[in-house]
From TrEMBL:
<dbReference type="GO" id="GO:0005783">
    <property type="term" value="C:endoplasmic reticulum"/>
</dbReference>
<dbReference type="Pfam" id="PF01255">
    <property type="entry name" value="Prenyltransf"/>
</dbReference>
<dbReference type="GO" id="GO:0016094">
    <property type="term" value="P:polyprenol biosynthetic process"/>
</dbReference>
<dbReference type="GO" id="GO:0045547">
    <property type="term" value="F:ditrans,polycis-polyprenyl diphosphate synthase [(2E,6E)-farnesyl diphosphate specific] activity"/>
</dbReference>
<protein>
    <submittedName>
        <fullName>Dehydrodolichyl diphosphate synthase, putative</fullName>
    </submittedName>
</protein>
<dbReference type="InterPro" id="IPR036424">
    <property type="entry name" value="UPP_synth-like_sf"/>
</dbReference>
<keyword id="KW-0808">Transferase</keyword>
<comment type="similarity">
    <text>Belongs to the UPP synthase family.</text>
</comment>
<dbReference type="InterPro" id="IPR001441">
    <property type="entry name" value="UPP_synth-like"/>
</dbReference>
Length: 264
């Protein structure tokens, strides 16, 4: 098999495109046949014990499995758990996978994390404001007015406004020195606004957000593909590993340019 040959020559990661999201546009009987075949394979003890375990191959099923049935999800999870300690080769079988859909999911997960961080930041600010207001309220309760003296309404309103402004100013000062919390707005708009305000430098934006994006991809912890084999005589990628292939191509172009500059 291909996996055995790859493991024999030292390949560490092999990704196989088994079922694309676009395949759901096929006829229903064909879809059911392909997904049933995948479920049967993941449940086959001969394939798990006789092949994956004996060859020390770890299996990971990549894709949005919310599009498939619970039986297939359970079979994929069981097969992955049975081989999780194998280390000779990582076999990534892509089921219900699409490169553009994977990018969308990664960005959505990033936005959710940033929204959670923003919510936690807001809650911390509210707690700080409450801690600043509480002592002032206690001091006001302890203070007794002089006999026959009355506080004019205008003065009372001014004092209340000053007390409210104090925690707000403290929170604003704390916010300046705290880490940047990006709002839940457009991805490019956030990058542009952060750059204009001088909070992030372009290289920092690229490194931090870029690394966070790669971590959210299902293959973000894997090395970039060194070779892509397209069967059936086709030259198109068919929505397979779009980001990974593009990133590898850019790195190869940079290396070629550096070599050309050295020879010049």
């Amino acid at each position: 098999m291909v996996a055995t040959a790859c493991a024999a020559v030292g390949v560490r990661v092999l990704s196989v495109y088994a079922f694309a999201l676009n395949n759901f546009y096929r006829q229903e009987d064909e879809i059911c046949c392909l997904l049933d075949l995948a479920e049967t394979l993941f449940r086959d003890p001969t394939w798990i014990q006789g092949f994956l375990m004996s060859e020390d191959i770890r299996l990971v099923v990549v894709g949005d499995l919310s599009f498939v049935g619970p039986k297939l999800r359970a079979a994929a999870a069981a097969a992955a758990a049975a081989t999780q300690n194998n280390k000779r080769l990582l076999l990534r079988i892509c089921v219900a996978y699409g490169g553009r859909h994977e990018v969308h999911r990664a960005i959505c997960r990033q936005q959710q994390q940033q929204q959670q961080q923003q919510q936690q930041h807001n809650e911390q600010q509210q707690q700080q404001q409450q801690q600043l207001v509480a002592p002032q309220q206690q001091d006001c309760c302890r203070t007794t007015p002089e006999p026959h003296s009355a506080v004019p309404p205008a003065a009372a309103e001014a004092a209340a406004a000053a007390a409210a402004a104090t925690p707000a100013a403290a929170a604003a000062a704390a916010n300046v020195s705290s880490a940047l919390q990006l709002p839940a707005e457009g991805f490019c708009q956030r990058l542009r606004s952060a750059q204009i305000e001088g909070k992030w430098k372009p290289d920092k934006i690229t490194s931090e957000l870029g690394c966070a994006f790669w971590r959210e991809l299902q293959g973000g912890d894997c090395p970039l593909p060194s070779i892509l084999i397209r069967t059936s005589g086709e030259a198109r990628l068919s929505d397979f590993l779009l980001c990974e292939v593009q990133q590898q191509q850019q790195q190869q172009q940079q290396q070629q340019q550096q070599q050309q500059q050295k020879h010049q």
